[in-house]
Amino acid sequence: MAKEITSRSENYSQWYQDIVKKAGLADNSAVRGCMVIKPTGFAIWEKMKAQLDQMFKETGHVNAYFPLFIPKSFLSKEADHVEGFAKECAVVTHHRLMNNPDGKGVVVDPSARLEEELIVRPTSETIIWNTYKDWIQSYRDLPLLINQWANVVRWEMRTRPFLRTAEFLWQEGHTAHATKEEALEEARLIHEVYARFAEDYMAMPVIKGAKTESERFAGADETYTIEALMQDGKALQAGTSHFLGQNFARAFDVKYLNNENREEYVWATSWGVSTRLVGGLIMTHSDDDGLVLPPKLAPTQVVIVPIPKPDPEIMEHADKIAASLKEKGISVKVDRDAQKRPGFKFAQYEMEGVPVRLGIGKRDLEKGLVEIARRDTKDKTSVNINGCVDFIEKLLTEIQENLLAKAKKYRTEHTTSVDNFEDFKTVLEEKGGFIEAHWDGTADTEDKIKELTKATIRCIPNEAKEEPGKCILTGKPSARRVLFAKAY
Amino acid sequence: MAKEITSRSENYSQWYQDIVKKAGLADNSAVRGCMVIKPTGFAIWEKMKAQLDQMFKETGHVNAYFPLFIPKSFLSKEADHVEGFAKECAVVTHHRLMNNPDGKGVVVDPSARLEEELIVRPTSETIIWNTYKDWIQSYRDLPLLINQWANVVRWEMRTRPFLRTAEFLWQEGHTAHATKEEALEEARLIHEVYARFAEDYMAMPVIKGAKTESERFAGADETYTIEALMQDGKALQAGTSHFLGQNFARAFDVKYLNNENREEYVWATSWGVSTRLVGGLIMTHSDDDGLVLPPKLAPTQVVIVPIPKPDPEIMEHADKIAASLKEKGISVKVDRDAQKRPGFKFAQYEMEGVPVRLGIGKRDLEKGLVEIARRDTKDKTSVNINGCVDFIEKLLTEIQENLLAKAKKYRTEHTTSVDNFEDFKTVLEEKGGFIEAHWDGTADTEDKIKELTKATIRCIPNEAKEEPGKCILTGKPSARRVLFAKAY
Hints:
The structure is a homodimer. Chain A is an alpha+beta fold.
């Protein structure tokens, strides 16, 4: 059966790679660090995208598209930004190839050197704010609430499918506002949208909070993040929303006339989630038998398997049930293969993470029954064929809720409060997970802890209550606990 | 009013640029040849994309995603392909920037030179067939019916928004088949899908046909095309579907074991349409007052304008009508602006191509009437407010049909049969449009005609009837007329 997967306890990282491969989600490509997203993996991303896009539109955003390339000089206009982004990226220097004069193949045409190099966008603040300069003159042009679905490239040294790849797909929102308050409100609104999406659709609980200054986006005055906990006790930063102040407006000279006819710099936000979410989804729910998907994001929600093989009577029932499921908006696949054994198919669909499997066999059918198996708990039930569609509809909701509850339980069990550095190190090494601890608020201490333990401050949680204490490293006073973890 | 637009008769090319700009569809960018697709322009592309995506899925295709970059050596593996594509493209040579040691800004880090240059994909046959090699072993792995929505880059010298840009958005289907017949059938199926989309959604009539050998895609054994006629009498190639034979399978060594356990090369197709379609849509229907959009692709189908200004009673009616329209799946905008005059707004919405405008004024309201104006003919009608939603629903269908009929009429009037080269030149210069003429079937003659007149053979129409004749240039025998035109 599905035993080609390494177990989580044996090697978590290999387990992840195995699932990505065996469930047909992604492949390596011939280009270093770039993956091929296979149809099943892409279908998950498409579902995420459709839902997020709807949520963005419901909150007043529109989509647009900006160029893939950024003139090199743009990157250095915002001082912090260039430090954070400009270094590891794909640089286009020429615009033509020519036949190799010395033999086979093609070579770069040296006469086609660009006057100014172009960078493949690692993120689009610079090219977008250079454009906004032309779009914004007065307060009447504001707010601009624009999102883009795009590919970006960051030349990462160590890559892993979905979690960290040189090219990845994402959305990047870039909004422009007349006031600081409005921009802050926007950044927080999107922060909420991300958290809602993670919990309600991905069934992935997240901690909402603000990044410390050292962990902020390069060019941001404030970064809000949602942090999820994976099954190996490591945190995954799943989505960030940045309040950019007037930094990019100053860098690209974007001013507007306010309603008193005075010129002011425009306030900005940017925010993004990426195909990394697919990695988070895999790691949050899957088990040693393969992928587990929350029904709301499963490309195929139900598979109907004839037992032992398709025959006309069984297939008639299967098609009828499939039609009724489709009418309810449930995506369903009817397995028509006549070669493979049911046991093999069951393992395959478990591997692929189909939330519900419906088996139809001759003997059950005589009693008016079908067998329904759920992927999350592996429980099986015999159900009357006439009520099976309603049963499945309810079951999908139940699976969605169960996955969230299970992930929350895991997180609760793997969130520990510690009060001194020894305990901090012990918990980090032996148990992992989120650690709530006091920190003196300085970047120095943060760096030191990272250096000593590899743990970082994931965020200052929104819901952290006022609680005076002492920094675990320096003993200096602290007003509230922050959230530490090792992270992806 | 909308009189900032150059008229078509004065300067067709400027008229097009004016519409793109004034209707807010696209902007130039800081990167040569790359455009910014603005929200309204992008919303049109999104509607096209959603519809095409549905049609692809209904015909059994799935989406996936392949890398942006192609190793340089891949391009020269298929001999014809490299001649057609490898030359004008964006070449990535380095993967890092560094602070300028001599001063401000950043420069390319010379130590970060790539071992092999990467090309930003101009099309993805090579990287995809390199991947298919791993995915295809036996006939059971076939067919592979995969599509990708992506950005591509071709370093064009002369660019125009949507029609020809260095970077553009498109879909590219890449399918793999066990037999020649199946691959040919696939290429023809997609050809039909493209034609149906053009006529049923874009209201843009197209001629379906095959390309001559010289006009085929680089690496194809057969290219099917849909050709539309623009209002300046020039043709626009709107979508192509290629039968690639075994060319890419041979180049990338992709073989499968057939059901007799014999190794064979795989058969291939590829097919694509791009944001160029937005350009075709604009040029097919628009007039001297601005954009005209077929309702099925209009981001906003109906706008409701209070006359002269929004007041509570009027807005209550407006909101009620808007809600009823939305229930029917009709997209509607309620204009709430209290500053601008109705006349100004009318001109603006005409410019933006909103298919139906509904005006609500106090005086009309007392009689239970509203005013409905259609963008295509500019006709206005007073309609009873209670029946206005049904009226609009029918009107949208009528506009969609009228635009197609009008475009067909234009094409019929601008399609001329000629029997000698003098007439050919005269018609081409004085009337333009499609010319049906005899051709001796040789590439030499085709080239000569192109050289002398700039007209190309757009296609050998599927529906060209057998009709013996003499080539207009050489007088040699010909079995049927082919379709000539000057083209974009």
